[in-house]
Each structure stands twice: as structure tokens, then as C-alpha cells.
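Weekly modeling sync, notes
Attendees: AB, CL, MP (scribe)

Item 1: holo prediction request
CL wants a bound-state model with iron/sulfur cluster before deciding which constructs to order. AB pointed out that an apo prediction alone won't tell us much about the pocket. Agreed to run with the ligand included and paste results into these notes for async review.

Input as submitted:
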Amino acid sequence: MNKKQTASKSKQSQTESKRPKTEAKKTKTESKKTKTEAKKIPSAGKTKSLIRQAPTSKSQAGQKTKKSGNSSASAKPAAAVAKASRSQAKQIMDALLSLYPDSACELVFASDFQLLIAVILSAQCTDQQVNRVTEKLYARFPDARALAEADLEEIKAIIKPTGYYNAKANNIQNCARMLITKYGGKVPQSVEELTILPGVGRKTANVVLGVLHNIPGWSVDTHVQRLSKRFGFTREEDPLKIETDLQKLFPGQDWSKLSITIIWHGRRLCYARKPACGECPLQSFCPSSEV
Ligand code: SF4
């Protein structure tokens, strides 16, 4: 089965206790990441007409918002947002699911191993950039054994555009080596087993399990953290506590899909610094709307 898929991905500010170096660095440049992420506009469904009006770049969003008298739009502080009830949370998520019916992981891969490595490389990097890099990386080292035996300097040279390439190169090669020695070259299917691997934290593990096996899990990256607070889903700062709040609020079978959908909205409209509330279809009921 050809597992090539595309979807969106965003980056993680994890504070997990055993968080690997590459993921720990995420929080430092999260805001920078959202600046450069490409904005994709859904192209079908009832809500298409709404989202079509969305800005195609962050600068455009700022211009449009300015015209609507909301030039300094910034979502309310999390403390000012009332905690959402289950029905309010459902209304918000239903709207997002309707807005992005095709939301999915945007990383390109042809095997479980390739997805895992791509997710590790996605820390502090856009999916588009990761896809450009992995096209070259997998042409040279398509599987765990090839990457495990590769020249480290060559790996660094290939993945350099993703940032933090020294740490990432070490992590993905050591990850490949551990996959060979500990898991017979296969990507394990549990959070506990995955998070033993170099470069793999809980968020990465949940992305991999959700995409590959539809195993429910929240991918609490920078977008999920930010939007969950804006929506009143949580008031926590710690990703693990945020995940716990989200688990209580939504049915388990929806967690992976909801994660990706929130990430899409964070990338396309609900920006970190200046959310495009004037262009957002949720503005009439979002508790953080500045419109
Ligand atoms: S109205 Fe939309 S863009 Fe503004 S804070 Fe709410 S979800 Fe984000």
C-alpha cells in the first residue's frame, strides 16, 4: 500500500520531562515558524466560500484586518477566556472540521520509517521545507539501515535547511540505529516504545501513531497549545496538562483528526501574533475573537 500522504504539520513547544534536544528547542522559535508557514486554502465544501476569503499570506492578513479596523488584533489573554463547556467546544470543533474537511498530515513519505524521520525533522521547520529535504534524503537513504550506516556529515549537509541540523542529524541517525537494533528495523506502535527513540517526544509519537495507525492521540504542538487556550479548552501551559484537558473534552476517536484540524487553523488564520479574526468564520462565537 502506498502510504504517500500529504497533510499539515506544525511545530512543537514541548516541555515533556524526557523531551529530546531537538524538540526542546522548538519553543524558542515557534513564533518564527508560524511566520513562514505557507497558508493553504481549502478548495471544497460549503465553507470553501468562507475560507476562500482568507488571506494567502500573513502580511495580507494584516492588511485586510487593518481595513476592518482591527489592525492591532491580538487574541485575549488565556486568563480572560472563560473555560469552554462541552457544547461550546463541540461548536468550535464542528466549525473547524467544516472549514477544513480535508485536513491531514502534509508530510510526504513512503514508509513508516520515512514519516517518523520527517516528523523529527519538522521541529522548528515547515512541512514544505521538510518535504523538500526528505525528497533528497530518502533518495540517498530510503530506509533505517541505509540511514544508520550513512556518513553523518552527508546527512547534515542534506538536512541543513530544516535548521538545528547538527542535533537533528545525530538524532535521526541514532533513531535509525535503534530501530535496527531494538525493533528489527520497524517503527513501533506505542507511545512508550516510540519515545525511547532519539529525537522522539510524545507529540512526535502521537503524530506518527495517528497518521500511520489512526491511534487516537493529541499532538500538542505550538498551534494546539495556543488555540486551545484561545478557545477556552485549557488554561494550562504544560503540553501534558493541555493534553489531559483536551482528552476530557473530546471523544477519543477524534483526537488525531482534531489535532491536525486545529493545527491547520493555527497556520492559516489564527496566527500567534495577530490572528486574522476579521477573516475568520469563527469570529461570532470564538471567545478570543477581537472582532
Ligand atoms: S476569531 Fe478566529 S482567528 Fe480570531 S482568535 Fe478566534 S479562532 Fe483565532
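Recorded for review: Residues 75, 230, 269-270, 275-277, 280, 282-283, 286, 288-289 surround iron/sulfur cluster (CB under 6 Å).
Action items: CL to compare against the apo run; MP to circulate these notes.
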